[in-house]
Inverse folding.
């Protein structure tokens, strides 16, 4: 038993360090290191339009991606023009919000910008050398921290255009030396590994066509680095070096948007289908549907934001803006509470606090507990949804369409 617990703890530790240099980064990709957890000290509990706002900055274009951070630099993607003909990558300073550089590239597959089709939805990844930006057009733009282009690539030109009524929303993931792209859509779908230095294909695994907007995450399992994907009917684990399938759970419904969360207990899956929000024990080979599902949370559903695990509880937010707390051991619902609005941004856990960033600009902060325990309700005036958040330098970088807002605890006046 002690050995098993130790193994789980080691896996959890590895999850927090997905690639070399992780100790230096602030928030390197979608949901940070893929688990929506932060160890940042002194994060603000309360803020408003006039309290604890360090700066606000309008961006050159609009977008739905989350900002990412490396040390003192923030990177964010946007699109511009009536037909999204401009692909934009902007670099800002954390301390001031000043724009260091803003680069613009032509969209290889422009289409009309509407509320119903993704707008710069995939979140980029950043490492010590470069930022890697992916757009729903299939364009990948790689720049160094000075804004110089390293390489570009059009996946639409190489493998065909993306097909779907609402565009593409899957964010990038990364290993030490590769970026991982999930392209699940109505056309030929695939999982792809690209060399970070050159953009060349390391491996490509064709997949059954399935429309999904969930994002892959890179973690560490018993056999080394793994890629975990929860996507329209299936949850799969693949070897990061080869893309070969390790295990899968099938016959699911509604798991098309929320990304999985990995803990020492296993893989938590979010789904819009009640009964398919569940915990999968890690390990096994091949199809483990009948052997490795630890529990299903009955009556619980998950919308756009991914589930987060904290303090022995899993938290899900439904499309109807209901927040559910589920016991990680038994899968039973401990409580539910209706939020002011639903959430597109994934919640963030810090210590025993969890921050829920609602679409209307409200952030609800709760304590992870067996009863609903609200610590704060914060409101920002917004003209679009809150799409994503990065945690860095004792604050939150909040993405609201064409604006970034940095909220940070201000020292009390003497």
């Amino acid at each position: 038993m002690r050995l098993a617990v130790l193994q789980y703890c080691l896996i959890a530790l590895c999850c927090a360090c997905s690639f070399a240099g992780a100790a230096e980064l602030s928030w390197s990709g979608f949901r940070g290191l893929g688990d929506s957890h932060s160890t940042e000290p002194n994060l603000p509990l309360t803020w408003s339009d006039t309290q604890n706002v360090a700066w606000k900055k309008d961006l050159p274009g609009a977008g739905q991606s989350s900002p990412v951070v490396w040390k003192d630099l923030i990177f964010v993607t946007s699109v511009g023009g009536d037909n999204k003909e401009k692909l934009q990558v902007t670099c800002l300073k954390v301390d001031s919000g000043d724009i260091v550089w803003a680069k613009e590239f032509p969209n290889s597959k422009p289409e009309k910008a509407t509320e119903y089709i993704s707008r710069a939805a995939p979140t980029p990844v950043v490492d010590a050398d470069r930022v890697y930006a992916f757009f729903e057009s299939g364009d990948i733009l790689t720049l160094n921290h000075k804004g110089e282009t390293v390489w570009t690539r059009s996946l639409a030109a190489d493998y065909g255009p993306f097909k779907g009524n609402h565009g593409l929303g899957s964010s990038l993931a990364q290993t030490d030396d590769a970026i991982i792209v999930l392209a699940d859509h109505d056309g030929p779908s695939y999982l792809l590994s690209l060399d970070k230095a050159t953009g060349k294909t390391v491996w490509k695994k064709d997949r059954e066509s399935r429309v999904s907007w969930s994002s892959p995450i890179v973690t560490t399992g018993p056999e080394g680095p793994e890629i975990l994907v929860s996507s329209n009917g299936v949850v799969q684990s693949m070897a990061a070096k080869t893309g070969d399938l390790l295990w899968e759970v099938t016959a699911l419904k509604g798991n098309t948007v929320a990304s999985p969360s990995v803990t020492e207990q296993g893989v938590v899956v979010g789904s819009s289908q009640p009964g398919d929000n569940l915990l999968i024990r890690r390990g096994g080979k091949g199809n483990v549907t009948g052997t490795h599902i630890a529990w299903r949370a009955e009556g619980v559903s998950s919308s756009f934001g991914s589930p987060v695990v904290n303090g022995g509880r899993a938290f899900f937010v439904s499309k109807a803006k209901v927040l559910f707390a589920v016991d990680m051991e038994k899968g039973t619902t401990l409580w539910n509470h209706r939020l002011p609005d639903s959430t597109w941004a994934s919640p963030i856990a810090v210590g025993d606090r969890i921050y829920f960033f609602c679409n209307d600009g409200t952030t609800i902060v709760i304590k992870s507990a067996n009863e609903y325990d609200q610590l704060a309700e914060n409101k920002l005036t917004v003209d679009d949804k809150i799409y994503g958040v990065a945690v860095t330098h004792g604050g939150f970088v909040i993405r609201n369409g064409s604006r970034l807002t940095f909220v940070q605890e201000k020292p009390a006046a003497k």
About this structure: Residues 1-24 have pLDDT under 50 and may be disordered.
